[in-house]
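As a warm-up, study this chain.
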Amino acid sequence: MLLLAACAFVSSARAMDRWSALSMIESGNNDRAVGSLGEISRYQIRPALWPGGNPHDATEALAVARKIMQTRVAKFRLVHKRGPNDFEFYVLWNAPKEINHPARVVAERARRFANLVGRSSAT
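Now compare it with the structure written out below.
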């Protein structure tokens, strides 16, 4: 019994919320990261989607990321009649046009993301 409780604690200790996992996957939590396509902030947001302000501020970057995903998740809900699982959430973030058929590299990163979050994921 004690061993089961310890295993459950260790397992839950490794789980992250979606935003923490997204920051970890996208930039290693680096607020000053700049991607190969000019993506900025810890969430690697494309410059065309950045509304202005300080991308180096973690709180501001999170607010922008949430706003971007609010629209994407709403569209997903309309089409699929449910919210995205963790795998799908990452695909919506990284390659929303590939939501039904993500490229292999996107799917691999989405699986890593889902594992970090620690919830059920798609294959």
